[in-house]
Amino acid sequence: MAMFDLSLDELREYRPEVDEPPDFDNFWRDTIDTARGFDLATTATKIDNKLAVIDSYDLTFAGYGGTPVRAWLHVPAGTTGPLPTVVQYHGYSRGRGYPHTNTIWAQAGWAHFSMDTRGQGWHTGGGTATDDQAVEAGGIRAPGFLTAGITHRDTYYYRRVYVDALRMLEVAGTHPLVDPDRLIVTGISQGGGITLAAAGLAPMAGISLRGAAPDVPFLCHFRRATEITDAHPYAEITAFVAGWRHLEEAAYHTLGYFDGVHLARRASAPTLFSVALMDEVCPPSTVFAAFNAYGGRSKVAKDIEVYTHNRHEGGVDYQVDRQLTWFAECFAEHA
């Protein structure tokens, strides 16, 4: 895939008018209030992860609608806390997987929560996964998750996922191994989109973050994405509207409540994005639309790493190296 989107100079100035529902904030405040009507019901059981230098806990908490969501908590072996903490969300089709699979942030000396994405995880496997038990999980859809419940904001799949992400932060903030004043959220692709949701909703929920690091984020500027790429998962929206032509307006109206551009605008934590200019899965203009909007309601420090000749893999270990430095700086600030 060659470069197919706007030039880098154009991308840096790209600030599209993305339709935002007038009751966006009220919808999310009501959603958060409803979610908090359920006790977090957190359980954490130490397990044998077969690793000598990392301790792992099998954690469950009440996500959207009180349904159980699973996560790993990894910490340096023998730690007593409280520790700076990274909360990680995962890409489309992925989940927390096996406990030994992903421990990089604990290796750096921090607490590391790795949250399942309900109903997903088939590309990471592992012995356990989180079901999507909500009654809203039914209804017409194209294959995949991007159009599940898309005809109404209340039933849309990502309403449940974004609430799970916010509840994960609440769990982290109350855990004895965690310093609640030093929390960072991060994720790649879908995980990057969920990161933007967590960062944008955190101020509404009274949660303070030290940073947000979305890599090649998905779930941003939906209409633009469907217009310039036929790659999945955005192609799921195209397939849905191509079949149910009369539902196009309803679908895009729903997506307006979940667009990373709007959520990024409400974020107040410093951020480090990444983007790949040959990325046909999450086109560069959709990423820059969110980046340029980020922190629009406040003056916030933000930066973006640009990988000119990469596709959706983005920076991979280059970006992890950048994050290790940036996270440490965020955690050290005002410590």
Q: What does this protein look like?
A:
This protein is of the alpha/beta class. The protein has a single domain (8-332), classed as Alpha/Beta hydrolase fold, catalytic domain (Rossmann fold), CATH 3.40.50.1820. 32% of the residues lie in helices and 19% in strands. It contains eleven helices and nine strands. It has helices at residues 8-12, 24-35, 104-107, 157-174, 190-201, 222-228, 235-243, 248-255, 260-265, 284-293, 317-332, and strands at 43-47, 54-62, 68-76, 83-89, 111-115, 178-188, 211-215, 271-276, 302-307. The chain has a nine-stranded mixed beta sheet with strand order 1-2-3-5-4-6-7-8-9, with helices on both faces. The model has no long low-confidence stretch (mean pLDDT 95).
- Report the C-alpha radius of gyration, rounded: 19 Å
Number-wise, the strands total: 9
Give the overall shape: globular
- Unreliable spans: none
Main CATH class: Alpha Beta
Strand residues, percent = 15-25%
> How many structural units, i.e. domains?
1
CATH architecture: 3-Layer(aba) Sandwich
Portion of residues within helices: 25-40%
Distance between the termini: 44 Å
Number of helices: 11
The succession of helices and strands, N to C, reads: HHEEEEHEHEHEHHHHEHEH
Strands of the largest sheet, in order across it?
A: 1-2-3-5-4-6-7-8-9
CATH fold type: Rossmann fold
Taking the sheet with the most strands, its summary is: 9 strands, mixed
